[in-house]
């Protein structure tokens, strides 16, 4: 009997209700990204001039950004007969692209309400919270983020000018407890993310300085 090969996990973007944590929408990556670039900028107390004695203190979580490209191809989502009865067959990648782009748009209902209030001479109310965006790259990287830059490159179209092959460049900033607090759903997810890193860090580098060619430090 041939061994069963487990299905490869797919990353993606999950949108949650920021108050209840309910899943609103899931946009899986059709193909996992070839590369993910992460940049972490430390927040050190000693960064300020004149704080020489505080050089080893950290005042908060680092500012972390993720950059990756998500590729989509409608042809690989159709059945072998190329059936156009499915949504992808009729509209190409409009659905997947619109779902990702919705992360950087306020709801149209909010825009209309603001216009109505402005027309009536009423004070503008604070905008409602947008859905919480969560980047999922496997079970160990479930990261609350804000999409700060989104670049869509449409590479091919069908006969009705529906995009059928596209690449989406995503630039995201991790939301930490400094941004949202500890009780917000994003804060809870962030703490889990950091604690997972700490558990893995504890598995590495427990030996002595001999590992780097020194007898003592």
How would you sum up this structure, described in words?
With 217 residues, this protein is of the alpha+beta class. It has one domain. It has 5 helices and 7 strands. It has helices at 87-91, 94-101, 108-119, 177-180, 185-201, and strands spanning 12-16, 23-28, 36-44, 58-73, 132-136, 142-157, 163-174. Strand 1 and strand 2 form a beta hairpin. The longest helix has 17 residues, at 185-201.
Task: Provide a brief overview of the structure.
By secondary structure, this protein is α+β, with helices and mostly antiparallel strands. It has helices at 87-91, 94-101, 108-119, 177-180, 185-201, and strands at residues 12-16, 23-28, 36-44, 58-73, 132-136, 142-157, 163-174. β6 and β7 (163-174) form a beta hairpin.
SS-based class: alpha+beta
The topology string of helices and strands comes to EEEEHHHEEEHH
- Spatial gap, N to C terminus: 56 Å
Instruction: Please state roughly what percent of the residues sit in beta strands, choosing from under 5%, 5-15%, 15-25%, 25-35%, 35-45% or over 45%.
Output: 25-35%
Task: Name the helicity range.
Answer: 10-25%
Q: What is the residue-averaged pLDDT?
A: 86
Topology:
Elements: E1 12-16, E2 23-28, E3 36-44, E4 58-73, H1 87-91, H2 94-101, H3 108-119, E5 132-136, E6 142-157, E7 163-174, H4 177-180, H5 185-201
List keywords for this structure.
217 residues, 7 strands, 5 helices, seven-stranded antiparallel β-sheet, alpha+beta, single chain
């Amino acid at each position: 009997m041939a061994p069963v090969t487990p299905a490869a996990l797919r990353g993606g973007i999950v949108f949650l209700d920021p108050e209840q944590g309910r899943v609103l929408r899931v946009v899986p990556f059709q193909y996992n990204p070839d590369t993910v670039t992460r940049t972490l900028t430390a927040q050190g107390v000693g960064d300020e001039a004149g704080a020489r004695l505080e050089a080893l203190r950290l005042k908060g979580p680092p500012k972390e950004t993720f950059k990756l490209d998500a590729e989509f191809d409608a042809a690989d989502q159709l059945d072998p007969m190329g059936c156009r009865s499915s949504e992808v067959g009729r509209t190409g990648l409009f659905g997947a692209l619109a779902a990702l782009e919705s992360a950087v748009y306020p709801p149209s209902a909010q825009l209309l309400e603001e216009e109505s209030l402005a027309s009536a001479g009423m004070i503008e109310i604070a905008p409602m919270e947008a859905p919480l965006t969560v980047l999922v790259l496997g079970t160990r990287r479930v990261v609350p983020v804000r999409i700060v830059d989104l670049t869509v490159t449409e590479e091919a179209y069908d006969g009705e000018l529906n995009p059928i092959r596209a690449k989406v460049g995503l630039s995201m900033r991790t939301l930490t407890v400094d941004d949202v607090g500890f009780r917000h759903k994003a804060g809870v997810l962030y703490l889990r993310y950091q604690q997972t890193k700490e558990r893995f860090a504890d598995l590495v580098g427990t030996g002595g300085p001999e590992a780097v060619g020194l007898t003592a430090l």
